[in-house]
Amino acid sequence: MKKGTLILIIVGVILLSLIGWVIGGLNYVVILDENVNQSWAQVENQLQRRNDLIPNLVNTVKGYASHERELFTEVTQLRSQWASAATRGEKITAARELGGALSRLLLVAENYPELKANQNFLTLQSQLEGTENRIAVERRRYNKSVETFNAYRRTVFGSMFAAMRGLTKPADYFEAEERATEVPEVKF
């Protein structure tokens, strides 16, 4: 084989390897972005499930605790706020606030022994608890996807590939509110 042909083959292999690396990097950042989007869709599915359970829970509790009108109004308002949120960040904020209001609603129920024994309430409470667990699992998965995407975006070549794909903004984490560690206070 001639020396010139060998050099052309080596340059061709290097060029093909480089092209493959660039294509792989561009595809990988898109895959990470889609993982974030898919994970967020699962969070939204569970938040929607919770949102659908809320009217039934509120109506059940209303029959026993009619003087808690302010709390019922707040839950209904926050539910509407979540449904009308346009961005992922707005939905995260609304979901956090709704979670706090639901905690207070369940605390109200603790003060009504006949409500705690009501089968409809117990079923709804159980479904809501299961949904809250699902939300926690999906939030964790979503945050893991966000972590992977954001970390890749911050690497030397990851930032280059992300910029080439127009994915320069970091994804938002779904974190608990600072006041989530506070015990809700219910006054009668």
Q: How are the elements arranged and paired?
A:
Blueprint (H helix, E strand, L loop, with lengths): L2 H60 L6 H16 L3 H23 L2 H4 L2 H36 L1 H9 L24
Structure description:
This protein is mainly alpha-helical and 188 residues long. It has a domain at 40-154 and 170-181. Helices cover 79% and strands 0% of the residues. The chain contains 6 helices and no strands. It has helices at residues 3-62, 69-84, 88-110, 113-116, 119-154, 156-164. The chain is rod-shaped.
What's the helical proportion of residues? over 70%
Report the biggest beta sheet as strand number plus sense, adding barrel if it closes.
none
Query: How many strand segments?
Result: 0
Strand content is: under 5%
Secondary-structure-derived class? mainly alpha
What shape does the CA trace take? rod-shaped
In short:
By secondary structure, the protein is an all-alpha fold.
Keywords:
188 residues, rod-shaped, mainly alpha
